[in-house]
Amino acid sequence: MNGPASSAALRIGAPVALGVVVLVAWQLLVTLAGIDDYLLPSPLSIVEQMIEFWPALIAAIASTGLNALIGLVVGSIVGIAAALVASLSRFFDQLTAPIVAALAVVPIVALAPVLNTMFGADSEVGRRTMAGLAVFVPVFINTLRGLQQTRPVHRDLMRAYAATRPQTLRVLTLPAARGYIFTGIRIASSLAVISALVAEYFGGPRGGLGSLISTSASTSAYARAWAYVVGGIVLGLIFFLVTAALERLASPMSRSLTVTGRSK
Amino acid sequence: MSPLDETTDAVVATGVGKVFPAGNVTALEGVDLVVRSGEFVSLIGPSGCGKSTLLRLIADLDAPTSGTLTVFGKSAEKARIDQDYGIAFQQAGLLPWRTVSANIELPLELHGVGKAARKQRSAELLSLVGLTDFADRFPDQLSGGMQQRIAIARALAEQPSLLLMDEPFGALDEMTRERMQTELSNICAETGAAVVFVTHSIPEAVFLSDRVVVMSPRPGRIETVLSMDLGSASERAESLREDTAFFEMVTAVREALHQGAPARGVDDR
Ligand SMILES: Nc1ncnc2c1ncn2[C@@H]1O[C@H](COP(=O)(O)OP(=O)(O)OP(=O)(O)O)[C@@H](O)[C@H]1O
Ligand SMILES: [Mg+2]
């Protein structure tokens, strides 16, 4: 009991301590060396701005977060579904492989202005589409990989049981792919936030983190811009932690391991 | 589970051959074998002589390239679809994300057996293989031998009238191995299942079998078939292992093996 608990304390405590040291050093550097605000605002002034603009900050996190979430959910569903079809049909696989390869190398951000015009300047759809596209690629690639992870002895077993294709999918192929699918979603979660936020730099409705960062910066409110950047970091962290927790929840083995670990 | 028709042979192979296109390997050639209903037949022979291949053909996991094969009077494919056999592979092949009991219940679940009946059956089988305490563990938390016992329990789940077993006791220690042999012997006596059993152990083959099929190395052929005449499965007890008739049979099988080829991969345990 002592071992895992103290190692967990170390795992969380060490980065927190490092963060505090960095923040104090940053504060001292800015105040003692008299660095100008537009170069680097001090942590305290950033916190001040966060408190002053708290309702706007929360609303911005919610607005950008909603776009990222919709992109993550829709992109993941489409990515998993497309990977399933590709794994069942060689033809579809060969059809989609070059498209996915192309999507994987296109910087999704480059599509932002195009998508914004496509869906109109007062719509969130363009941003959500961008987040969805950014999510689709890693989810599709990882899921397709995962669907190929069944072992020959397990395939023989399913054949010996005369299992139907849907049965095989349910009891063998999907569970074997589970880890890969969740890894894809975890990677995609950060991409969803980044894309939703960056998409706001290219116009459209205001009020999200991205648009507030760019407005603040262009009106020389540097500390406020940084306050919204902190909001972006928090949002990314929330997405990452939630998907990582989902991954743990979805794995029966890790659940049982934590149970036995606690009982010892 | 097919109707246990005493008159239908469990397996009839006539001139069965198997050539793997990969590398043009002739794994089996001209295999003629009849396994009667309720009969225990062991396949023994040097490593790579095609024992697993023959088992896979019977299970319709592979198709023969020559000859014909029937299982309970039907094609191997029909027998597989009718679920006439239970199988335990050389590897345990448990699904790592399912608990031990969920693994045993897998065939029952796939074939629409209700939850309560499944639970009851897996509890029975777990006590049979002596792993009741491990019902809720995951396979990775078990030793290789324990996993193999789970795989055997899974093969028995639907009380098949034909059991196909590929070195199922290979990973077990000698004590557990002998206990499992006795259990298997009892199960066969109770259920009247026919068994095709692959092993590398001569005493194991002799103890369990009505007949031992000695195979020669590539291309895999049947060298000789020896009848054991040691009494029916129900009469076989631990004491048989110290019987002179038993040792005579062990010697007979060993000689048959050595005649065919230098007995690589076969031990005298
Ligand atoms: N899928 C395959 N493709 C090509 N060759 C194969 C394949 N499966 C088996 N073989 C070959 O067929 C021969 C017989 O293999 P098999 O696995 O039946 O041997 P075995 O008697 O079960 O050996 P062991 O006692 O080591 O398990 C071997 O030479 C093997 O290399
Ligand atoms: Mg083998």
Automatic annotation (TrEMBL), chain A:
Keyword Transmembrane helix: yes
Gene Ontology cellular-component terms listed: plasma membrane
SUPFAM superfamilies tied to this protein: MetI-like
Pfam families per UniProt: BPD_transp_1
Entry's transmembrane regions: 12-33, 53-86, 98-119, 125-144, 180-202, 225-246
Broad class of the protein's primary localization: membrane
Localization annotation: Cell membrane
Membrane-protein topology: Multi-pass membrane protein
Domain ABC transmembrane type-1: 61-246
GO biological process: transmembrane transport
Keyword annotations of the record: Cell membrane, Membrane, Transmembrane, Transmembrane helix, Transport
Protein family: Belongs to the binding-protein-dependent transport system permease family.
Stated name of the protein: Nitrate ABC transporter permease
From TrEMBL, chain B:
UniProt-listed InterPro entries: AAA+_ATPase (IPR003593), ABC_transporter-like_ATP-bd (IPR003439), ABC_transporter-like_CS (IPR017871), ABC_transporter_ATP-bind (IPR050166), P-loop_NTPase (IPR027417)
SUPFAM superfamilies, sorted: P-loop containing nucleoside triphosphate hydrolases (SSF52540)
Residues in the signal sequence: none
Keywords: ATP-binding, Nucleotide-binding, Transport
PROSITE patterns with a match to the protein in the record: ABC_TRANSPORTER_1, ABC_TRANSPORTER_2
Matches recorded under Gene3D superfamilies: P-loop containing nucleotide triphosphate hydrolases
Keyword Transport in record: yes
Entry keyword annotation includes Transport: yes
Domain of life: Bacteria
Domain ABC transporter: from-to ranges: 11-242
GO MF, any single term: ATP binding
Protein's name according to its UniProt entry: Nitrate ABC transporter ATP-binding protein
Species per Swiss-Prot/TrEMBL record: Amnibacterium flavum
